Amino acid sequence: MPTPVRAALLASWGTAFLQGAARLEESVRAIEADDEPHLVLAAPMADPQELADVLEELRADGLTGLRLALPVPGDLLGLTGPPALNQAALAAGEAAIGIGAPTPSAGTALPALVPDVRVFGSPGDQGYCVTWRLSEASGRHPDVPDLAQADRDLVTAMRETTETLSRVAGSSWASDAGDMARQLRGSPQPLLLPGGAGPRAESLAQRALRVSRIVDAARTDEGGTLTAHSAAVRSASLGPLERAARRALVAAVGACHDLAVR
Protein backbone atom coordinates (compact mmCIF):
# COMPACT_ATOMS: atom_id res chain seq x y z
CA MET A 1 0.00 0.00 0.00
CA PRO A 2 1.48 3.40 -0.93
CA THR A 3 2.20 5.32 2.26
CA PRO A 4 -0.04 8.37 1.59
CA VAL A 5 -3.06 6.09 1.25
CA ARG A 6 -3.01 5.35 4.97
CA ALA A 7 -3.63 8.94 6.04
CA ALA A 8 -6.24 9.29 3.29
CA LEU A 9 -8.06 6.22 4.58
CA LEU A 10 -7.86 7.43 8.18
CA ALA A 11 -9.07 10.93 7.28
CA SER A 12 -11.96 9.73 5.11
CA TRP A 13 -13.20 6.67 6.99
CA GLY A 14 -12.40 8.23 10.36
CA THR A 15 -14.59 11.18 9.37
CA ALA A 16 -17.37 8.82 8.32
CA PHE A 17 -17.35 7.27 11.80
CA LEU A 18 -17.08 10.60 13.62
CA GLN A 19 -20.10 11.90 11.71
CA GLY A 20 -22.15 8.75 12.23
CA ALA A 21 -22.09 7.81 8.55
CA ALA A 22 -20.23 4.51 9.09
CA ARG A 23 -19.98 1.95 11.88
CA LEU A 24 -16.79 1.82 13.92
CA GLU A 25 -15.93 -1.72 12.81
CA GLU A 26 -16.49 -0.82 9.16
CA SER A 27 -14.26 2.25 9.38
CA VAL A 28 -11.43 0.47 11.19
CA ARG A 29 -11.52 -2.39 8.68
CA ALA A 30 -11.28 0.06 5.77
CA ILE A 31 -8.45 2.05 7.40
CA GLU A 32 -6.33 -0.97 8.28
CA ALA A 33 -6.91 -2.74 4.94
CA ASP A 34 -4.22 -5.45 4.64
CA ASP A 35 -2.03 -4.09 7.45
CA GLU A 36 -1.63 -5.59 10.88
CA PRO A 37 -4.03 -3.96 13.39
CA HIS A 38 -3.11 -0.29 13.75
CA LEU A 39 -2.02 1.11 17.10
CA VAL A 40 -1.96 4.70 18.39
CA LEU A 41 0.74 6.11 20.64
CA ALA A 42 -0.27 9.26 22.54
CA ALA A 43 3.16 9.83 24.13
CA PRO A 44 6.63 8.22 23.83
CA MET A 45 6.33 6.29 27.12
CA ALA A 46 2.58 5.61 26.94
CA ASP A 47 1.02 2.24 26.27
CA PRO A 48 -0.27 1.95 22.68
CA GLN A 49 -4.03 1.98 22.16
CA GLU A 50 -6.14 0.26 19.54
CA LEU A 51 -7.29 2.50 16.71
CA ALA A 52 -10.96 1.80 17.46
CA ASP A 53 -10.58 3.03 21.03
CA VAL A 54 -8.90 6.25 19.92
CA LEU A 55 -11.59 6.99 17.32
CA GLU A 56 -14.26 6.58 19.99
CA GLU A 57 -12.34 8.96 22.26
CA LEU A 58 -12.05 11.54 19.51
CA ARG A 59 -15.80 11.43 18.88
CA ALA A 60 -16.47 11.75 22.62
CA ASP A 61 -14.20 14.84 22.61
CA GLY A 62 -16.43 16.48 19.99
CA LEU A 63 -14.28 15.94 16.90
CA THR A 64 -16.37 16.07 13.71
CA GLY A 65 -13.82 14.94 11.16
CA LEU A 66 -10.24 14.45 10.06
CA ARG A 67 -8.56 16.21 7.16
CA LEU A 68 -5.63 15.01 5.10
CA ALA A 69 -2.17 16.58 4.93
CA LEU A 70 0.32 15.47 2.25
CA PRO A 71 3.40 17.66 2.73
CA VAL A 72 6.69 17.60 0.85
CA PRO A 73 9.68 19.94 1.28
CA GLY A 74 8.64 23.35 -0.02
CA ASP A 75 4.92 22.56 0.04
CA LEU A 76 3.38 21.91 3.46
CA LEU A 77 0.04 20.93 1.96
CA GLY A 78 -2.57 20.66 4.71
CA LEU A 79 -0.26 21.77 7.55
CA THR A 80 -0.36 24.94 9.62
CA GLY A 81 2.02 23.99 12.46
CA PRO A 82 3.34 23.75 15.01
CA PRO A 83 6.91 23.02 13.81
CA ALA A 84 7.11 19.66 15.61
CA LEU A 85 4.07 18.37 13.73
CA ASN A 86 5.30 19.79 10.43
CA GLN A 87 8.62 17.99 10.81
CA ALA A 88 7.01 14.67 11.74
CA ALA A 89 4.47 14.87 8.91
CA LEU A 90 7.17 15.81 6.40
CA ALA A 91 9.21 12.77 7.43
CA ALA A 92 6.19 10.51 7.00
CA GLY A 93 4.81 12.32 3.95
CA GLU A 94 1.32 12.41 5.43
CA ALA A 95 -0.87 13.12 8.43
CA ALA A 96 -4.52 13.19 9.48
CA ILE A 97 -5.58 16.26 11.46
CA GLY A 98 -8.72 16.77 13.52
CA ILE A 99 -11.59 19.09 12.72
CA GLY A 100 -13.55 20.44 15.67
CA ALA A 101 -17.06 21.80 16.00
CA PRO A 102 -17.54 24.65 16.23
CA THR A 103 -14.51 25.77 14.27
CA PRO A 104 -11.73 26.37 16.82
CA SER A 105 -9.91 29.65 17.24
CA ALA A 106 -6.41 30.02 15.86
CA GLY A 107 -4.92 29.33 19.27
CA THR A 108 -6.83 26.09 19.85
CA ALA A 109 -4.91 22.85 19.39
CA LEU A 110 -6.42 19.89 17.55
CA PRO A 111 -5.30 16.25 17.52
CA ALA A 112 -3.04 15.10 14.69
CA LEU A 113 -2.02 11.57 13.79
CA VAL A 114 1.17 10.75 11.89
CA PRO A 115 1.90 7.15 10.83
CA ASP A 116 5.07 5.22 11.57
CA VAL A 117 5.10 2.30 9.12
CA ARG A 118 7.35 -0.72 9.66
CA VAL A 119 7.80 -3.45 7.05
CA PHE A 120 8.33 -7.07 8.04
CA GLY A 121 8.73 -10.36 6.19
CA SER A 122 10.66 -11.44 3.13
CA PRO A 123 10.37 -9.81 -0.32
CA GLY A 124 7.17 -10.95 -1.96
CA ASP A 125 5.61 -11.82 1.38
CA GLN A 126 5.75 -8.59 3.33
CA GLY A 127 3.43 -7.15 5.91
CA TYR A 128 3.09 -3.75 7.55
CA CYS A 129 2.86 -2.66 11.17
CA VAL A 130 1.44 0.86 11.56
CA THR A 131 1.64 2.98 14.70
CA TRP A 132 -0.06 6.37 14.61
CA ARG A 133 1.71 8.95 16.77
CA LEU A 134 -0.76 11.37 18.30
CA SER A 135 0.30 15.00 18.62
CA GLU A 136 -1.20 18.49 18.37
CA ALA A 137 -1.97 20.68 15.36
CA SER A 138 -2.81 24.35 15.33
CA GLY A 139 -6.43 25.38 14.86
CA ARG A 140 -5.66 27.48 11.78
CA HIS A 141 -7.34 26.34 8.58
CA PRO A 142 -4.92 25.41 5.77
CA ASP A 143 -5.17 26.62 2.19
CA VAL A 144 -6.40 23.56 0.29
CA PRO A 145 -8.19 23.30 -3.07
CA ASP A 146 -11.85 22.48 -3.55
CA LEU A 147 -12.90 19.40 -5.49
CA ALA A 148 -13.70 21.12 -8.80
CA GLN A 149 -10.50 23.18 -8.89
CA ALA A 150 -8.33 20.21 -7.96
CA ASP A 151 -9.93 18.13 -10.71
CA ARG A 152 -9.28 20.83 -13.32
CA ASP A 153 -5.70 21.30 -12.11
CA LEU A 154 -4.96 17.58 -12.36
CA VAL A 155 -6.30 17.39 -15.91
CA THR A 156 -4.25 20.46 -16.90
CA ALA A 157 -1.07 19.11 -15.28
CA MET A 158 -1.50 15.77 -17.05
CA ARG A 159 -1.85 17.49 -20.43
CA GLU A 160 1.05 19.89 -19.93
CA THR A 161 3.39 17.20 -18.59
CA THR A 162 2.60 14.88 -21.47
CA GLU A 163 3.21 17.65 -24.01
CA THR A 164 6.52 18.66 -22.41
CA LEU A 165 7.85 15.15 -22.08
CA SER A 166 6.80 14.23 -25.61
CA ARG A 167 9.02 17.08 -26.88
CA VAL A 168 12.10 16.21 -24.84
CA ALA A 169 11.82 12.42 -24.81
CA GLY A 170 10.35 11.81 -28.24
CA SER A 171 8.85 8.46 -29.10
CA SER A 172 9.95 6.89 -25.81
CA TRP A 173 7.79 9.22 -23.75
CA ALA A 174 4.99 9.14 -26.32
CA SER A 175 4.74 5.41 -25.64
CA ASP A 176 4.93 6.01 -21.88
CA ALA A 177 2.23 8.69 -22.13
CA GLY A 178 -0.03 6.25 -23.93
CA ASP A 179 0.54 3.74 -21.16
CA MET A 180 -0.27 6.50 -18.63
CA ALA A 181 -3.58 7.26 -20.30
CA ARG A 182 -4.50 3.57 -20.43
CA GLN A 183 -3.67 3.16 -16.73
CA LEU A 184 -5.85 6.15 -15.84
CA ARG A 185 -8.74 4.58 -17.76
CA GLY A 186 -8.04 1.15 -16.30
CA SER A 187 -10.35 -1.17 -14.43
CA PRO A 188 -12.03 0.17 -11.28
CA GLN A 189 -9.93 -0.01 -8.13
CA PRO A 190 -11.18 -0.98 -4.66
CA LEU A 191 -13.26 1.76 -3.07
CA LEU A 192 -10.99 4.29 -1.36
CA LEU A 193 -13.54 6.71 0.14
CA PRO A 194 -16.81 6.06 2.00
CA GLY A 195 -19.72 5.77 -0.39
CA GLY A 196 -21.29 9.02 0.81
CA ALA A 197 -18.36 11.03 -0.51
CA GLY A 198 -19.84 10.71 -3.99
CA PRO A 199 -18.59 9.31 -7.32
CA ARG A 200 -16.77 12.48 -8.35
CA ALA A 201 -14.64 12.48 -5.19
CA GLU A 202 -13.93 8.75 -5.52
CA SER A 203 -12.96 9.12 -9.18
CA LEU A 204 -10.62 12.01 -8.39
CA ALA A 205 -9.01 10.10 -5.52
CA GLN A 206 -8.37 7.07 -7.73
CA ARG A 207 -6.89 9.19 -10.54
CA ALA A 208 -4.69 11.06 -8.08
CA LEU A 209 -3.28 7.82 -6.71
CA ARG A 210 -2.63 6.41 -10.17
CA VAL A 211 -0.87 9.59 -11.27
CA SER A 212 1.26 9.52 -8.10
CA ARG A 213 2.33 5.96 -8.83
CA ILE A 214 3.15 6.84 -12.44
CA VAL A 215 5.25 9.81 -11.30
CA ASP A 216 7.09 7.60 -8.79
CA ALA A 217 7.80 5.04 -11.50
CA ALA A 218 8.99 7.73 -13.93
CA ARG A 219 11.36 9.18 -11.33
CA THR A 220 12.99 5.81 -10.73
CA ASP A 221 13.61 5.42 -14.46
CA GLU A 222 17.05 6.83 -15.33
CA GLY A 223 15.82 8.04 -18.67
CA GLY A 224 17.52 5.56 -21.00
CA THR A 225 19.35 7.37 -23.80
CA LEU A 226 18.16 10.86 -22.89
CA THR A 227 20.71 13.64 -22.82
CA ALA A 228 21.49 15.24 -19.46
CA HIS A 229 19.45 18.29 -20.45
CA SER A 230 16.43 16.24 -21.51
CA ALA A 231 16.63 14.14 -18.36
CA ALA A 232 16.68 17.33 -16.26
CA VAL A 233 13.66 18.73 -18.11
CA ARG A 234 11.86 15.44 -17.68
CA SER A 235 12.55 15.41 -13.95
CA ALA A 236 11.48 19.04 -13.48
CA SER A 237 8.28 18.60 -15.49
CA LEU A 238 7.08 15.86 -13.16
CA GLY A 239 7.01 18.27 -10.20
CA PRO A 240 3.79 20.14 -11.12
CA LEU A 241 2.08 16.83 -11.93
CA GLU A 242 3.05 15.35 -8.57
CA ARG A 243 1.82 18.49 -6.80
CA ALA A 244 -1.51 18.39 -8.67
CA ALA A 245 -1.98 14.74 -7.71
CA ARG A 246 -1.34 15.45 -4.02
CA ARG A 247 -3.76 18.38 -4.02
CA ALA A 248 -6.37 16.27 -5.83
CA LEU A 249 -6.21 13.55 -3.19
CA VAL A 250 -6.49 16.11 -0.37
CA ALA A 251 -9.52 17.67 -2.08
CA ALA A 252 -11.17 14.29 -2.66
CA VAL A 253 -10.78 13.33 0.99
CA GLY A 254 -12.13 16.75 1.95
CA ALA A 255 -15.41 15.82 0.27
CA CYS A 256 -16.03 13.45 3.20
CA HIS A 257 -16.42 16.32 5.67
CA ASP A 258 -20.16 16.75 5.11
CA LEU A 259 -21.18 13.09 4.90
CA ALA A 260 -23.75 13.49 7.64
CA VAL A 261 -25.81 16.00 5.66
CA ARG A 262 -25.89 14.19 2.32
Provide an overview of this structure.
The protein is α+β, with helices and mostly antiparallel strands and 262 residues long. It has 2 domains: 3-141, Roll (Nuclear Transport Factor 2, Chain: A), CATH 3.10.450; 147-249. Helix content is 50%, strand content 17%. It contains 7 helices and 6 strands. It has helices at residues 3-18, 24-32, 51-60, 83-92, 147-184, 199-220, 228-254, and strands at 39-41, 49-50, 63-69, 95-100, 110-122, 125-137. Strands 2-1-6-5-4-3 form a 6-stranded mixed sheet, sandwiched between helices. Helix 1 packs antiparallel against helix 2 (24-32) and helix 5 crosses helix 7 (228-254). It is globular.
The gist of it:
With 262 residues, the protein is an alpha+beta fold. 50% of the residues lie in helices and 17% in strands. It is built from seven helices and six strands; from the N terminus they run ααββαβαβββααα.
CATH first level of the largest domain: Alpha Beta
Unreliable stretches:
none
How do the strands line up in the largest sheet? 2-1-6-5-4-3
Tell me the major beta sheet: 6 strands, mixed
| Structural class by secondary-structure content | alpha+beta
Strand content: 15-25%
Global Rg: 19 Å
End-to-end CA span: 30 Å
- Residues in helices, as a percent range: 40-55%
How many strands? 6
The quaternary structure here is single chain
CATH architecture of the largest domain: Roll
Tally the structural domains.
2
Mean pLDDT: 85
Overall outline: globular
**Total helix count?**
7
Please name the CATH topology of the largest domain: Nuclear Transport Factor 2, Chain: A
One letter per element, helices H and strands E, the order comes to HHEEHEHEEEHHH
